[in-house]
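Ligand: AHM. Inputs:
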Amino acid sequence: MEKSGRVEPIRNVEQHVMERQRAYHPNATGEFSWLLSGITLATKVIADHVRRAGLRDILGGTGAVNVQGELVQQLDVIANETILACLGYRGNVGIMASEEDDEPHIIKDFDDHSKYIILFDPLDGSSNIDVNVSIGTIFAILQRRPEIEAGQVMDHILQPGFRQVAAGYVVYSSSTVLAYTTGDGVHMFTLDPSIGAYRLSRENVRMPAKGDTYSINEAYRAQFPDGIQAYLDWTKTKEAGRSLRYVGSLVADFHRTLLRGGVFIYPPTKKAPDGKLRLLYEANPLAFIAEQAGGAATDGRQRILEKTPKALHERTPLVIGSKADVDRVLSFWKS
Ligand code: AHM
Ligand code: MG
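Predicted complex:
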């Protein structure tokens, strides 16, 4: 766009998506950017709640336990309802499924216009809500499979991660940052609170090929597979020269790993033999972003994006980050 000389053009998420679609998918209908604008709207509302949480009476638990067996925080519920409300009325969403809900929501019977499936973790890192530590929202977008009958809801949802048409996350932190990919790179935006728009801050983000941090809840060490324990021993050697960083919010730990390099690991434990993190709305979207930025993601046996999900709330071990660091973990953890 031509500059007027005084006012810089503002590139917000919606404009960015439209520009890239025009360049790479000239037949696109604009439906996708309309969908994404539902996500940006919802996450702006959530960011506002997060920022004012101590001023409004919305901190603390609801007293309920979710399908994952975890305590539900009031902000979890608000975030969940906000996303459902903002996206449910877009008209092009058929199914939505959330970490917080047992069953998927059938928003609209599939037709030519309601082709999208949204899977999301409305507020990741909930245990950090009350103590002002970074939390986030993660989302994955799939399309209905035309070869499958509309009523087979779970078959539409249980698609391997390589079929995601888009994925992203928002981290609510010192600033609110949104990252998304549609399979042509990873792009990052910062919420400008003065105008209420996500402004482009980094285009085509690349994850460093290697980093010097590892990120894992080392308190569970005795429960980890031997190979992970051997890797942890190596990190303490002079040759390794590694540092440990662990926020305990996946989005925040991933965001740092994406920008600085290194590796995030949530291995199987004796208590959680399949790992803790959820495949469909935590591991898959972040794996898509990691790969698009030049990184890697595995469960120790196979690429996360190639796993065939069997259940909506399925868990998976996760090793994600810079390619060299993921390979290093695997060289110790030959499962
Ligand atoms: P949540 O989605 O209920 O918040 O749980 C997932 C969180 C991740 O953000 C984080 O990586 C992990 O749980 C931390 O688990 P732990 O406390 O076992 O280290
Ligand atoms: Mg989560």
